[in-house]
Each structure stands twice: as structure tokens, then as C-alpha cells.
TrEMBL record:
<dbReference type="GO" id="GO:0004638">
    <property type="term" value="F:phosphoribosylaminoimidazole carboxylase activity"/>
</dbReference>
<comment type="subunit">
    <text>Homodimer.</text>
</comment>
<dbReference type="InterPro" id="IPR040686">
    <property type="entry name" value="PurK_C"/>
</dbReference>
<comment type="pathway">
    <text>Purine metabolism; IMP biosynthesis via de novo pathway; 5-amino-1-(5-phospho-D-ribosyl)imidazole-4-carboxylate from 5-amino-1-(5-phospho-D-ribosyl)imidazole (N5-CAIR route): step 1/2.</text>
</comment>
<keyword id="KW-0547">Nucleotide-binding</keyword>
<dbReference type="InterPro" id="IPR054350">
    <property type="entry name" value="PurT/PurK_preATP-grasp"/>
</dbReference>
<feature type="binding site">
    <location>
        <position position="100"/>
    </location>
    <ligand>
        <name>ATP</name>
    </ligand>
</feature>
<dbReference type="InterPro" id="IPR011761">
    <property type="entry name" value="ATP-grasp"/>
</dbReference>
<feature type="binding site">
    <location>
        <position position="205"/>
    </location>
    <ligand>
        <name>ATP</name>
    </ligand>
</feature>
<dbReference type="GO" id="GO:0005829">
    <property type="term" value="C:cytosol"/>
</dbReference>
<dbReference type="InterPro" id="IPR013815">
    <property type="entry name" value="ATP_grasp_subdomain_1"/>
</dbReference>
<feature type="binding site">
    <location>
        <begin position="258"/>
        <end position="259"/>
    </location>
    <ligand>
        <name>ATP</name>
    </ligand>
</feature>
<dbReference type="GO" id="GO:0005524">
    <property type="term" value="F:ATP binding"/>
</dbReference>
<dbReference type="GO" id="GO:0006189">
    <property type="term" value="P:'de novo' IMP biosynthetic process"/>
</dbReference>
<comment type="function">
    <text>Catalyzes the ATP-dependent conversion of 5-aminoimidazole ribonucleotide (AIR) and HCO(3)(-) to N5-carboxyaminoimidazole ribonucleotide (N5-CAIR).</text>
</comment>
<dbReference type="InterPro" id="IPR003135">
    <property type="entry name" value="ATP-grasp_carboxylate-amine"/>
</dbReference>
<keyword id="KW-0067">ATP-binding</keyword>
Length: 372
């Protein structure tokens, strides 16, 4: 037992709290509103701005161990948490994961393969960078982007004139990778350095937002081994305790890291039904110093489809026909309890576990289609 603190009130915090509670822990959530997904299932909630030091201390003083569900947390907040209880990921891991340039350099300096990149600060430095990484390229803000927000595809130098250069002072120009597939590996690491990685997930994105994840990934054994060993090395390089998700591009037999996230990840939601230990239960184990759980699939295949606010219809008001979706054999529904549906907002997901990959993918897609 004991009390685990969770900074952030979103769906990752919510599913973590459910796993932690079922393992006998109390969970205190720290977030800006009691109406967010996580407080609804937590034992306690401290409401406050993440940079309000009085609220941070009120929260942290109640916890035996602290974790978080998103990276963009002020460094001062994490430093304050660390004064009260062990905090995972640490301030140091977070500083790396908050900044694409620092993240990519750290991984590259450790000899890990990352998509070719260059630092950019303005139009002129983009011109120089484009000679190094080539065109087309993807321009990303160094900090605080998610779901593709803050990204520009630059086909010609002319396109770079449309960028609002004043909005940000540090950017990453990244080579456009013509990948065959995108995959991710989630690895858990405990404070004594033990690691356990989940099977590789194959991910499909639509409009830069994860749409479908599936296992097994349709990649060679060689690529699978490479991807899993890259993920373990990345966790060791960054000295992560807890989970690290490594998003990768696969281009024939080559694996390149896109980015990492030191927390549970959307591509791992299918582990709730598909693996002996879910990513959330594994995160609890890793940060609480418990033995890591078995990560194997409980059956041969699984698929997950995200439910965005879009399925609520154009007015985003009438709730979809959930009964229709879960009537598809084997499909499980997860809803995050968000108060308001918006286009592009992650509201829930559907999972199906079975023996045949194309069948389980078809099942979640059909279940989702019944909603619109
Ligand atoms: P999130 O953190 O929500 O995953 P993000 O804003 O950090 O999103 P990225 O993961 O960098 O965004 O990019 C989102 C998607 O855009 C990728 O999963 C991939 O499909 C595409 N993408 C990003 N960078 C590249 C690249 N260099 N080459 C080709 N496609 C890319
Ligand atoms: Mg990201
Ligand atoms: Mg990403």
C-alpha cells in the first residue's frame, strides 16, 4: 500500500489511477479541475495551477511516490515534488523529454539512430538546415508540441516564409522519413536497472493523431529485435525509472527513433486487455519498486482504435450508440469521462483481442464505424 501522487488529470492519469487502486494504492491527483478524467476515479484530488507552489506542496506532502502523465510540467514543480517524495520520471528525464533538441542529441550521442535533424531558429538558419537534412522536411517546435501541433511540412524554401517565426525561438528541422510503418516500444525500468519491454505495436496516424495500434507489428524478427533493443538502450541512456515509450519509423530494415515519452502512452492502451500486465500496472510496479510484470500477449493479436470527439457528430453533443459498438464480438469500450467532446480530442478507445490480427483490426474499425 501507500499513496501515489499523479501530476495531471487526463486519461493517462485516470487509467493509471484505476490500475494503482486495484493494486491497493491510494492515488492523489494534482490538476487544475476536479472535472478532468483522473480525479473522477482517484481517492483524492488537489486542485491548483501546476506552478502554484503552495498547491504543489499541499499535494506532494501527501505522497510516498510521485509520477506524472504528461511532460510539460514546470521544472520548479517537479523540483518541489522531489523534495517530498521520489518522483518518476525525474526532473532530469523530464528536461530531456520536454525538449526535442535535447532529446534527439542525447539519444544520438548515445549512438542510437534518430531521424536526421538540425536546430533552427529563424528563416535563415532553416535555409542552412535544409541543405543538411534535405527537402522536404518537417519543422517542429522544440518544446510543447503534441498531436502534430506546431509542425510544418516544408516542401520548398518558399513554404518556410509562411512560418510564424516569432512564435517560437527554437525549432527542429527533421528529414521527412518515407517510412513503411510506424512502431512503438514501451519499456519499463525499475530503480535497480531491471527492464522489461512490451511487444512492438504498429501504429497508424491520421492527421498526426494516433488512430489505430495493433500487435503483432508486421515487421521482420530482425526489426523487432532492433526496435526492442533501441528502446531498452534509450531508457538506460536517459536513466528512466517507470515507463519510456519510444516511437520509431521503420523503413525496410532500418529503424529510426522519432521521439520518446517517459510515461504510459496511447499506443499501449491495448495492453489493458492484451498483455499479462497492462502498461499502467507496469508503471505502478516500476515506480513502487515492485517486481516488473510479464509483458507477453495473452493471445496472438490485439488492436486498439481511438475515439475522438468526432464520433459525437458535428454538434459534438449527442452521445454515440455505445451499445452498437460493443455488440461487435470481443470489443471492449473505454471512455475517459471528459465533460465536453471536441473534434480531434481523445475521448476514449476500443480494444479487441483475438487470434488473428486482421480480424481484430476489422472488429475495432467496424465498432467505431457503427458510432457515426
Ligand atoms: P505526439 O507527441 O502526440 O505523438 P507530436 O506532436 O510530438 O505528437 P510527432 O510524433 O513528432 O508529433 O509527429 C506526429 C506524426 O507525424 C508522426 O507519428 C508521423 O506520422 C509524422 N511525422 C513526424 N515527423 C516525421 C518525419 N520526420 N517524417 C515523416 N513523418 C513524420
Ligand atoms: Mg510528441
Ligand atoms: Mg509522436
Amino acid at each position: 500500500g501507500g499513496t501515489i501522487g499523479m501530476v495531471g488529470g487526463g486519461q493517462l492519469g485516470r487509467m493509471f489511477a484505476m490500475a494503482a487502486a486495484s493494486m491497493g494504492y491510494r492515488v492523489v491527483v494534482f490538476c487544475e479541475s476536479r472535472d478532468e478524467p483522473a480525479p473522477q476515479v482517484a481517492h483524492e484530488c488537489v486542485v491548483g495551477k501546476l506552478d502554484d507552489m503552495q498547491a504543489v506542496e499541499k499535494f506532494a506532502s501527501r505522497c510516498d511516490v510521485i509520477t506524472l502523465e504528461f511532460e510539460n510540467i514546470p521544472a520548479s514543480t517537479i523540483a518541489a515534488c522531489q523534495r517530498f517524495a521520489p518522483t518518476y520520471p525525474s526532473a532530469n528525464v523530464l528536461a530531456t523529454a520536454q525538449d526535442r533538441l535535447r532529446e534527439k542529441s542525447t539519444l544520438q550521442n548515445a549512438g542510437l539512430p534518430v531521424a536526421p535533424f538540425a536546430e533552427v531558429n529563424d528563416f535563415d538558419s532553416l535555409v542552412v538546415a535544409s541543405e543538411r537534412v534535405g527537402l522536404p522536411l518537417i519543422l517542429k517546435t522544440a518544446r510543447s508540441g503534441y498531436d502534430g501541433k506546431g509542425q510544418h511540412r516544408i516542401e520548398t524554401i518558399e513554404d518556410a516564409k509562411q512560418v510564424d517565426w516569432a512564435s517560437c525561438d527554437r525549432w527542429v528541422a527533421e528529414q521527412l522519413i518515407c517510412f513503411d510503418r510506424e512502431v512503438s516500444v514501451i519499456v519499463a525500468r525499475s530503480s535497480d536497472g531491471r527492464t522489461a519491454s512490451f511487444p512492438i505495436f504498429e501504429n497508424e496516424h491520421t492527421n498526426h493523431i494516433l488512430d489505430i495500434s495493433m500487435v503483432p507489428a508486421a515487421v521482420s524478427k530482425k526489426v523487432q529485435n532492433q526496435a526492442r533493443s533501441i528502446a531498452v538502450s534509450a531508457a538506460e541512456t536517459m536513466d528512466v525509472v517507470g515507463l519510456l515509450c519510444v516511437e520509431m519509423f521503420v523503413e525496410s530494415d532500418t529503424v529510426l527513433i522519432n521521439e520518446v515519452a517517459p510515461r504510459p502512452h496511447n499506443s499501449g492502451h491495448l495492453t489493458i486487455e492484451a498483455c499479462h500486465t497492462s502498461q499502467f500496472a507496469q508503471h505502478v510496479r516500476a515506480i513502487c519498486g515492485l517486481p516488473l510484470g510479464k509483458t507477453n500477449l495473452v493471445s496472438r493479436a490485439a488492436a486498439m482504435a481511438n475515439l475522438l470527439g468526432d464520433v459525437w457528430g458535428s454538434d459534438c453533443e449527442s452521445p454515440p450508440a455505445w451499445d452498437q459498438a460493443i455488440a461487435v464480438e470481443g470489443v471492449c469500450l473505454h471512455l475517459y469521462g471528459k465533460q465536453e467532446a471536441k473534434m480531434g480530442r481523445k475521448m476514449g478507445h476500443l480494444t479487441c483481442v483475438g487470434e488473428d490480427r486482421s480480424r481484430v483490426v476489422r472488429s475495432v474499425v467496424e465498432a467505431r464505424q457503427r458510432l457515426v
